[in-house]
Design goal:
elongated, mainly alpha, two-stranded parallel sheet
Amino acid sequence: MKFNEVTALEKKQYMIKKTFFYITFAGIVILFASGFKRYEFKHIKGFHIEQDSIYYSTVPNFAEISKENNLKIIEIPETSPSFISFKEKLGQKESRGRYNVINRFGYMGKYQFGKSTLRVIGIKDTEAFLHNPKLQEKSFEALLSINKYMLRNEINKYVNQTINGVKITESGILAAAHLGGAGSIQKFLNSNGSHEFRDGNGTSVKTYLKMFANYDTSNIIAKRSVNLSHLETNTVETKSFDNQNTVEIEQVKRDDTKESNAIDDLN
């Protein structure tokens, strides 16, 4: 009898616990579900467009805005690629940007100067020239100044004209003169493009006229002569390039010549 009373008590406690569990579980579910709301479409005036609606939108143009706000239209002048871009591109074309290179024809440095050209601007020590990037950059600008003076008449006469399919620009003329000398570009222009100089690798002045067109060379002042001998005597030898202690002798392969000819053919 006592055993049956204990069993009934346990059953009663079990039922109480079970009821409490379900009530608690139901409460948690209701509480959790109450945090979500059903998605509803709402029409907000001025922000809703029906699927088959036609919507028109107009905005004031610049002239209307300027008139309303008393603004003045400022014309921004067109600019040409910089002189730095011009000389770096030419240096890459001439020597892949290497200061201490000598090609198979004896032309040296980043811009491939010949000894006779260096003498024109007062440079006699070619060894010091090869190891002085600053002197090479100054020499390049000096030669541009001289060529700009020598070709001043051609620049005034032919710039913005088209000769043999090439638009003539000042930067193109100066680059072509660097390739083949002022005389070669004079012959090309004055012959209407029929006299076309090519260097030892097959690159023509026409190629340079195209490749280096429309760069800003306005900072180059035309000068009859430039002497840089004072820079040569005060040079400080710089560290060698490409981790070499000797001047690199470039052996120009036939493939390079073929590449130059291919460029000419494309142009």
